[in-house]
Amino acid sequence: MILILLFISACFLAYSNGANDNFKGVATLFGSGTTNFKKAINWATITTFSGSVAAIFLANELVKNFSGKGLVPNELITMPIFAISIAFGAALTVFIATKIGMPISTTHSLVGALFGAGVMAVGSQFNFEKLGGTFLMPLIVSPLMAAIISLIAYLIFRYFRKRLGITKKTSLNIHEKETTSIASFNMDNVATLKTKKTIEATIQNKIETYNGQILGLSSQKVLDSLHYLSAGIVSFARGLNDTPKIVGLLLIINAIDIKWSMIIIAIVMAVGGLINSKKVGITMSKKITPMNSGQGFTANMVTGLLVTTASVHGLPVSTTHVSVGSIFGIGTITKKADYKMIGKILLSWLLTLPMAAIVSGLLFKMLETLT
Predict the structure, then answer these.
(1) Is-contact 107 316, C-beta < 8 A?
(2) Rounded Cα–Cα distance for residues 63 and 65 (Å)
(3) Strand, coil or helix: 205
(4) Is the pLDDT of residue 295 over 90?
(5) pLDDT tens-digit profile of 147-160?
(6) Phi and psi at residue 59, to the nearest 5°
(7) What's the confidence (pLDDT) of residue 233?
């Protein structure tokens, strides 16, 4: 029964992860008007699943890190209630954030849950040094690196765009609404029909495109292709980085092969993204900063590069933190960033770790008492 509960908790975490994270890789595609929401989430689902499958061969170090190995005594890792507490504490935190549209880090939630359950179980025997060096430092440094690198990359790309003579063109998407007003009675109650028509026009959004050619091809078509590719790379990197973290909790279920665990988690993540990702998707795409396809491509390229590099080296960076950092870096250079929204996101990040720690710690004590 306990092992079944662990499996369910891990699936709940995978679902919450997919709902909060799957759209982040393609947020710039939707935000820049390159494609619509449905096509963006479908592309994210395919490429994230591919990354999850690749994790079977490339990300074994992350599986070990998130099983708790090195943070707590080995005998604790073999206790199913420890893994259940971590999975459920992290899952509930991510699920609540998803419901209110805040893009938080599943990695951050897992670290908080590991800390909460670990300290509750072993107290001072918890390896605080490894927590800081292996887990917390990459989480703190990665969004700052992403913001700075995306800012520099955008300046470089803008310089070469101007040197190549490629110009920007702004198109306005105007929505027209026709209204009719009718006056029907005068003072003597004699009916008169007067019709007045007015047309209200509102600008729904501005779309920036690029005019010019690169190697004889339309610069906009080349950029759109690169943008799709970069979004796919980010989603692939996210699947590569996140799936092993969840599978690490299932290592104690010896009946399930690690490869099958990866595939099951990948499927549940995909379902979570398809069903529950819209609120977080809107926040990432529309509320941090307006962007065009060139700016979106730059942010994605930086995110994909950093997350893939971290995954291969076993560093548990957050795709969320890196992606938000990259988009914010673009908004900073274009002077269009919404600092109020960034403040809300940063607050949700600060609350993630303590909330996950409290939930997982309390759950561990409750399960320990019951068992």
Answers:
(1) yes
(2) 6
(3) strand
(4) no
(5) 898 889 888 888 88
(6) -125, 40
(7) 86
CA–CA separation, 70 and 73 (whole Å): 7
Residues 6+ apart with CB under 8 A from 51: 235, 236, 237, 238, 239, 240, 241, 243
**Beta-bridge partners for 218:** 213
| Residue 145 parent element (H or E) | helix 137-163
Question: Among residues 172, 148, 171, which one has the least CA distance to residue 298?
Answer: 148
111-132 burial code (b ≥16 CB/10 A, e <16): bbbbbbbbbbbbeeebbeeebe
Neighbours of 189 (CB within 10 A): 6
Q: 66: closest CA among 106, 102, 97?
A: 106
Among residues 229, 165, 177, the alpha carbon closest in space to that of 202 is found at: 177
Contact 12, 88 (CB under 8 A): yes
CA distances from 176 to 39, 179, 198, 359 (A): 26, 10, 10, 50
* Contacts for 339 with CB less than 8 Å, ≥ 6 apart: none
**What distances in angstroms separate CA 243 from CA 106, 224, 233, one per listed residue?**
11, 28, 15
Instruction: Give residue 45's pLDDT band: very low, low, confident or very high (50, 70, 90).
Output: very high
User: Residue 174 to residues 200, 204, 291, 302, 332: CA-CA distances in angstroms?
Assistant: 10, 6, 18, 33, 27
**Long-range contacts at 333-336 (CB < 8 A, ≥ 24 apart):** 333/151, 333/154, 333/155, 334/289, 334/291, 334/295, 336/289, 336/290
Give the list of residues 6+ apart from residue 31 with CB closer than 8 angstroms, or none.
284, 285, 286, 290, 291, 296
Q: What predicted TM-score, i.e. pTM, was given to this entire model?
A: 0.79
Token pair, residue 44, equals 């994210």
Regarding beta strands 167-185 and 213-214, do their DSSP bridges make them parallel or antiparallel, or are they unpaired?
unpaired
Greatest CA span in the chain, whole angstroms? 94
Is the model's pLDDT at 203 over the cut of 50? no
